[in-house]
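Note to self: keep these together.
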Amino acid sequence: MAELITLARPYAKAVFDAAKEQNAVDLWDQALAFTAAVAADQEVKKILAKPGLSEQRKAELFADCFEEPLPEALRNFLSILAENKRLALLPAVSELFSLYRADLERTVSLKVSSAFELTAEQQQKLIDALSKKLERKVELETSVDQSLIGGVVIRSGDLVIDASVRGKLARMARAMGS
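Structure:
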């Protein structure tokens, strides 16, 4: 995965810079998310992996997967990816583009797992505290994981804050074992 991100970074950065200049960051983010979903489809992956097809033909077949004609700029971007045999990088390009957008807009999406369902008031307190700490607008996606026993685990990309009872017990066990 790290290698895909490394390969996708220059493409994501270039398309992000272009989208920013055109004031079309939201439009490109949506388009890339959709193309990433198409590229992740198993049937599309098989087409992209076929050695007998030219790269340009793969780009055309990929573009044909969409119900409506693609904007010229997106079609050109897909052609560039195809020429460089990088169509399979679309999910990573989309992911990086979204991160660049979040950085531009000073937002962060966090996944919060808790042992019990968080009330609206608890969620708001968590949003307020994290917004202040991270100096960003925080968006929460919550889920329940009863194996945590109590507390929460907060994830954003490779950042993990484990404030769960299960996590504290595991750290205590490691400390006692060493």
